[in-house]
Amino acid sequence: MNLSVAIVGAGALAVYSQLPSNPQSQHSSLQTVALVALLGVWTFCILEPIVRFSMAAGGRPLVERARLVALSLGYAGLLIVVLFAGAGGAFTPVLSLLANLLVLAIVPLLYIAFFPPTFLRRFWRQPEQEQLRLALHDLLLYSPDRATLANRALAWSQRLVGGESSFIIDRDGAILATRGIDRPQAESVSNSKELLKSVSNGQHPKRDDDYVIVPLDLQKGRGAMVIVSGRFTPLFGDEELALLRDYATSITAGLDRVTLNSRIAGLERAKTDFLNIASHELRGPMTVIKGYLTMLEAGALGDMASKARSVLPLLISKSDEVNWMIEQMIEASRLEEGRLALKKRRRDIVDLTETAVEGVKVLLMGHDLTFNKPHIPVDADVDPERFQMVIRNLLSNASKYSPTGTQIDVDIHRNTENAIVSVTDQGVGISREDQANLFTRFVRVESTEHVKGTGLGLWLSREIARMHGGNLTVDSEVGRGSTFTFSVPVDHA
Ligand code: ADP
Question: Closest Cα partner for 483 from 429, 445, 436, 446?
Fold first, then answer.
């Protein structure tokens, strides 16, 4: 507005003072003022865009930046040419030739600034595409949720084609993420243009006045990414549409992957919750059953027929098995929720191992147990309950996965750093491939699926060993048997 007033003012003054068109003629003082005013306004009109375009170029995507720099140079060239012309014939023929060449250069410069050809856009964009390739990797792998992924994806889409703002519409029509445009604005654009409908047929991006609409074929329906052009946006050509189409495929895969991940995490949570609830609900009734069985066996509830009495040890051993499973389930859900805290004490692990063996004696009745232990205590800082749990688990597995009558060896020794308990059986053994997954939650070897179990024991045992600063490892051969080695550090923790 102020500039318009200045132009009109300078023009009016030039008319009023009857400024001569011939620069050689004499000027009155009013005419000189008019001439200076005219030159001042004109210089400002040329300098302003030079400065404005070169400043606007900073920090923009490469294609936009190159266009703005070209525009700025075009204007600068104009300024130089006019200055040459203003100086009249005062230059040598060489300088005049240079001025003419400059005029010739300005035309293509301004042309590519307004309509940059495809090959130039591609050339300008190249360094950015390298960065995109690297960023895409991070974008797809490390985005924690869909909204974050969508947001990061928009930043790159905009850079890629030089859009001013952008947003992503989810499969249900809701706006998933916006960039450079606020949510209500994006919603109104999305509703008024019925964008999702406009890309409902076909896989290709669509140009629509000031927008490019890129379909996103998500697993559960079609969404869209919309790039809005701005004042400095270059044309959305076929090249840009093809780029966006490729990019959209990656974004779609990324969004679906995040959806899938959160569904898996949900299922995992449900599984842990179920484990937690089921184990706690089962514990009460099992305590009552085990209590009455023990009282019956002790004769505290009166005499029983000898036939009925003869099945009591079996019933007690079975209820011990169930209790053992419940105990594992409770510990597993504690571990999952990060609530499993060790209560360490200095204890003799020979003593603890003997107690653990005693606890599963009924299970080992069909096997020939050998016990190789040092004659002096081996002290270590351990959680006595959890330590025994690991030993019981290894012994119970050794008996479950080896034929009745075979030998099970328990060996305790120590080296400079660790107390080591190993349990060796002569059972079915475990193949190399199965050994790789053995310590994973709920993993059971297919060939032993007919044997009762939860697939929690070894996972839990290794976690407990590692929480102690120790480890649990396996050495096994199919058909020959297995050795599980449990170690805990002997120094003070
Ligand atoms: P569970 O015994 O309750 O299934 P574990 O986590 O203790 O769960 O064991 C996981 C799997 O490892 C078992 O299902 C079994 O296939 C295999 N396994 C464990 N111990 C032995 C062993 N001593 N010999 C052979 N296979 C074993």
Answer: 429
